[in-house]
């Protein structure tokens, strides 16, 4: 255990989050997402796991991870097929965590476009979220220099 670090953030996840640079994407997926096969195409090359619901994982990640403020799609959700404007409860819960961390509104990304974004991401964290469409992309921002 470490002081000040959410215990959900295991060593492999912390390594990946620290290694990522500005503009790199992190995918947080539900348990049905093809995380292992798509993660093989990412920079990290392997799937990471945190066995908790999506919103809890997002909260833990955002406790140490800045969201990009230079692009409009820094926080995204996979759209419901055929219903791009539908916002499911899992999406509402994750949106609340993103807002609580000072992040933007989640933008919708069509399912196959989301898969493409996942393939070019730095890393994929698969959660134990069993609700459908519990898949999100968070683009890393910067940590500003200390004032003074």
TrEMBL record:
One of its GO terms (molecular function) is D-ribose pyranase activity. Keywords: Isomerase. The keyword Isomerase applies. It catalyses: alpha-L-fucose = beta-L-fucose; beta-D-ribopyranose = beta-D-ribofuranose. GO terms for biological process: fucose metabolic process. This is Ribose ABC transporter. It comes from Pseudaestuariivita atlantica.
């Amino acid at each position: 255990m470490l002081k000040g670090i959410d215990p959900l953030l295991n060593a492999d996840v912390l390594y990946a989050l620290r290694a990522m640079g500005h503009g790199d994407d992190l995918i947080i997926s539900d348990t049905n997402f093809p995380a292992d096969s798509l993660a093989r195409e990412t920079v990290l090359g392997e799937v990471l796991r945190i066995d908790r619901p999506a919103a809890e994982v997002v909260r833990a990640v955002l406790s140490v991870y800045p969201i990009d403020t230079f692009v409009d799609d820094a926080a995204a959700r996979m759209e419901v097929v055929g219903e791009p404007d539908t916002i499911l409860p899992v999406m509402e819960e994750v949106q609340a965590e993103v807002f609580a961390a000072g992040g933007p509104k989640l933008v919708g990304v069509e399912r196959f476009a989301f898969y493409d974004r996942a393939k070019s991401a730095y890393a994929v964290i698969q959660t134990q979220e069993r609700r459908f469409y519990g898949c999100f992309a968070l683009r890393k921002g910067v940590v500003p220099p200390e004032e003074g």
